[in-house]
User: Fold this.
Amino acid sequence: MNDEAQQPLPSSPSSRAALAPPALDPALFEALGKRVVADLARHLATLRDKPIRPTPSEADLARALNQALPEEGRAPEEIVAAIERDLLPYPTGNGHPGFLAWVVAPPAPVAVLADLVATGMNMMGGGAAPLPTNLGHCVCRWLMELVGFPAEGSMGLLVGGGSMANLTGLAVARHWAAKRDGWNLREEGLQAARPALVLYASDEAHSCIQKSVELLGLGNANLRRLPTDGDYRLDMAALKQAIAADRAAGRRPFCVVGNAGTVNTGAVDPLDAIAELCAAEDLWFHIDGAYGALGVCDPEAAPRFTGMERADSLALDPHKWLSVPLDCGCILVRDRALQRETFSLVPPYLQSPRGTPGDDRGDEVPLPFEHGFDLSRGFRALKVWATLMHLGRRGLAAKIARNNALARRLAEAIEAAPDLELLSRPQLSIVCFRYRPPESEDVDLDALNQAVNERINGAGEFFFTPTRLEGRFAQRACILHYATGEADIDLLVRRVRQVGEEAAAEGTAQGRTR
Ligand SMILES: Cc1ncc(COP(=O)(O)O)c(C=O)c1O
Assistant:
């Protein structure tokens, strides 16, 4: 708890008596606001000095879970004190420079402040409100510029995250395919007897692609999971073969999903070759760049992304590499009119008052709710705007290049260590590896690496989530933090080797060998 928590807050009993909750006395709001911002400043400044992922005790968790609904409202001071006591000490780790798990970034501090303002203003960003809608278009245009996506005639929409971004892009793809074949998907649905729409992706594609295929009614059986090459990139020969086989069987290939940075290894598929094939075969080209699309800002990585600009739709997540606080994804669609056709439904109660900026059926200022599923939406654009304003193009490029360089440093250290094995060479900022002691023929490497992972995570300096590559347990380090440095990477390598040696010795003693 902070010192200010002990100090009396200005109270104004008369106005408090007059104000029924949730109304709040402005002086008290200001005092509590200062206290909360001070709490947050301390929290962000001291993350590195604390255990990375402190867990509340079982008793605290049970207490939180079993709270009774309060019959009477509580004082705001009490609520803030409870946040300070019960929540703030237990972050999930992603603000810490040693956090290397999943694809979850630390928040850009300036965007934390911007988001507070966005929440306070509470503007409805789904419709014609000029600020949230126009700033949304502005930041989407900036994102397009950053990744080289053509802006003319395109649409960018901020959504909850990568899953929603991919779902939205694939919904437009499905609409496009039906239109191409001369039927009205919105009217008829997928109930009529028509050739099955088939979608292609590598077997490294994120699970949200399968969820999207299922939710869009295409059926998991019509998702082709194709093999990858030695670098976990989509095998083009397999893609061509699968499309030909489906056509021969009377099915309707309609969309290829390329990865611009897979979740497992950061692999970037051969985007240019996929674009070429999609053009030749008349298929929709969707890219999942939720994690990696911004990797194109690093000049060294940029050549991998050739062809990304040819996508019909591209998902990318500001809440990942850009460090915009959760949550914020983005879907870019090449044909804005088609996206509107896919989603627009404007009953009388949603029509804007005449003269409202944005009330323009000529599509001058496209309205978010006509281009996606959500109607109500917050002011996500402000935190994206604040982050990009603070970083600038150069700052972002430098941060991404730094993360990628650290991944290469990690890979080199792994290759130089006799007891570590590199499982995936970094294309962006993800490295997969495992502890493998010399003469390990009889060692159960999966069990040993599981133990290493648990010990490292338990020690509180680093946190990383494993994955499986070609059936093998893989340590996976995803470097996204702006404050992770070379010393962190070097320490990580030392710790893994040290812990690996200990676990191997104990494992042998306990007969944990094959
Ligand atoms: C490549 C990729 N696609 C999609 C997603 C899903 O994004 P979200 O968790 O924001 O829904 C992720 C998440 O890590 C990802 O790495």
